[in-house]
Amino acid sequence: MGKYDINFRKQIKQVLPTIIRKNLVDFIYVLIKPIRDIYFRFLVAKEDNESKLSYNAQYPNLQRLLNDKFDEVLRRIQVKDSGESIDELLIFPNEEQKPLHLGQVIIYPSSRWGYSPFLVLVPEELRSEENKIRRYLDNYKFSGTKYTIEYE
Predict the structure, then answer these.
(1) What confidence tens digit (pLDDT) does each residue in 82-109 have?
(2) Do 72 and 97 fall into the same domain?
(3) Are residues 146 and 81 in the same domain?
(4) Which DSSP category does 96 fall into?
(5) Is there a contact between 145 and 114 (Cβ–Cβ < 8 Å)?
(6) Is the pTM of this model over 0.90?
(7) Which of 29, 35, 45, 126 gives a 20 to 30 Å CA spacing to 72?
């Protein structure tokens, strides 16, 4: 029995005096129908929130989320690190009297340093679901992280 399980008939029987229990249990059970409806809506919302909170932005959890929602039987969707992280470029100030030779270097803005895009490999049959996949990814990925969707 879970934390939020309520047996309404049992609760009604415990509250009523013994003499009138037999006649009024069903009547009161019908009277508390609005309370039971609110209780069942609460249970549905609790289950929905628990399932949403079971996923996070880690690659295995994103992969599990996408497979649970779109490819539950075959589980062919893969989420991988694309390996395109950009290292921070260090330039020494002139005070250190070290020679500066940059050569041919592409200097990225500081907002792109260290970001690591990831790759989502999706079967070709799920191409029509791309908008939904993007919606789930945008909801669960880290802010500022980019991704690309490729079809196999």
Answers:
(1) 766 655 555 665 666 565 555 566 665 5
(2) yes
(3) yes
(4) G
(5) no
(6) no
(7) 45
Identify the weakest region by mean pLDDT among 3-12, 33-42, 55-64, 140-149.
140-149
* Predicted pLDDT of residue 42: 97
Which H helix or E strand runs over 1? none
Q: How many angstroms separate the CA atoms of 63 and 76, rounded?
A: 9
Quick check: helix, strand or coil at residue 150?
A: strand
Q: CB–CB of 119/80 below 8 Å?
A: yes
Cα–Cα distance between 84 and 107 in angstroms, integer?
15
Report helix, strand or coil for 48: helix
pLDDT of residue 81: 86
Which pLDDT band holds residue 22 (cuts at 50, 70, 90)? confident
- Evaluate whether 108 touches 135 at the Cβ level (below 8 Å): no
Could you list the residue range(s) of the whole structural domain that residue 30 is in? Answer: 8-53
Sign of CA dihedral 148, 146, 133, 69: positive
Report d(CA 40, CA 16) in Å as an integer: 24
Three-state secondary-structure class, residue 18: coil
